[in-house]
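Q: Give me a backbone?
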Amino acid sequence: MPTLIDPYQRVIDYLRVSITDRCDLRCTYCLPKSFKGFEEPAHWMTLDEMRRLVGLFVGLGVRRVRLTGGEPLLRRGVDTLAAGLKRLPGLQDLSVSTNATRLDRMALPLRQAGVDRLNISLDSLDSGCMARITGRDCLSEVLRGIDAAVAAGFAPIKLNMVVQQGVNDHEVEDMVAYARQHGLVLRLIEPMPVGDTGRATVGRDLTALGEALARRTGLIPQLPGGGGGGPARYWVDPHSGMNFGVITPMSQHFCAACNRVRLGVDGTLYLCLGQNDQVPLGRLLRDGAGDDELRQAIVNGIAHKPERHEFTDRPEKIVRFMAQTGG
């Protein structure tokens, strides 16, 4: 089968697709409350254009696709898009990242469309803290969405908690207990200096915190690769089977094993979250490029994928906000 291999011999088999840069929350580490610089809807890829581009990536060896945003459940037709992508020959895993505010009514349609897995953002179990982080009182909506996802049969469901020093870091053990109780996977994430909001967020060193927490809660290290194809390092509860992981782009970056690229809502291919290298696939598509030309543009782009981000030594480099890149 065709494969996409970058200059550092990494196989690129994972594509994250932003289907909207809009979001109904304003998380402090992601978007400023006053942000209005969203992409014009006229420049968004249509669902058919997304399916076409994703199909080309899958034909080139991509096996895992995640629909992201912004908040992807704000985009009408997300379940229709998912159903179309699920039919692509060669696609092995289709997932969605969501803040879950609309998941109570979308969980079943997504499951029926063929979505395999969900990643859900949940930064706090305290309604006041959640409101301060997200910009509004949404905890009850998110918890209803999680319950709906469980009822729809999604498994595994991964909870993503961005850990901020002095904000929600005291809740980590409560979050572990919640994940255990509900049979969910918990991942703690270090905030990244993407945009002004990301640079203003103070995180915790999760390499050390994760190891200490695992010892206190009786979790044991999981073999590499046992928790999925992403960058998290996992521990497992030997009794319940609950997984707990940390994602550490700052304290212990994982660039050597990077297997992903991102497609923005306008069709821009971002080769690295922490670099500015990009390919204007959307513009080429709208200018009438055929499939062969688009495939070659993808291959040429992967041939220039950077080796690593520069978050630690050049945090000011990425001025776009996280929602503009696709999570």
